[in-house]
TrEMBL record:
Domain Fe2OG dioxygenase: start-end pairs: 106-208
Top-rank lineage group of the source organism: Bacteria
Protein name stated in the entry: 2OG-Fe(II) oxygenase
Keyword vocabulary terms for this entry: Dioxygenase, Iron, Metal-binding, Oxidoreductase, Vitamin C
Organism: Alteromonas gilva
Amino acid sequence: MQFSDHAQSVGTAAPEPLFASIADDILQRGFSIVPNALPMALTHRLTDYAQQAVGFDPAGIGRNQQYQQNEFVRTDEICWIQGNAAVTAAWLNWMDCLKSYLNTRLFLGLFSYESHFAHYPPGSFYKRHFDAFQGQSNRVLSTVFYLNSDWGHNDGGELVIYPPDNQPDSINVTPLAGTLVIFLSEEFPHEVLPAKRDRFSIAGWFRVNDSTAQRVNPPN
Ligand code: OGA
Ligand code: MN
């Protein structure tokens, strides 16, 4: 499938009120859950692309020397996004606009964004984990964007976000196409429940420059 002719139609215009409500959510609660976050055409193209054009590899844990595959923790497959196709370039551009907005509003000092497609074949999961540990990573904000055009309650595969400090209520997110989840990487443990169907998503992280790391106050 060719995407290069569609650079205009995928659309990258990002509505400022949406960015404003994401910033408010992060300030007040440390996370934001937004249905239909991206332009519908871009969501559809990313959904098609993930299912047809992506070469997935087994996912690992950690980076570089610490990298290891561990099928007790996660069984998804991933493919890092470079932005070579028009559709992935549009994705990175949208996230770059969000990064600029959050830096202006929240002074987060976000420096870069990295993301990968993820495919959870039936039976796959990702056990409870943090995306970053205090002081050990420059990942500040985690993002997950879902690419499943219909998803029922019986399909499993929900994202469970646990509150910081062992507070009681966790939140279950249905991985329905168009839903964007953003949370402070060091504050929220989370897990992916076993999926009963093929489940596609994009996981990403806004990072700070190591040498200029700034801290956000955890939500209370
Ligand atoms: C991750 C992750 C959640 C999801 O890749 O680190 O937590 O819902 N993904 O896919
Ligand atoms: Mn995670």
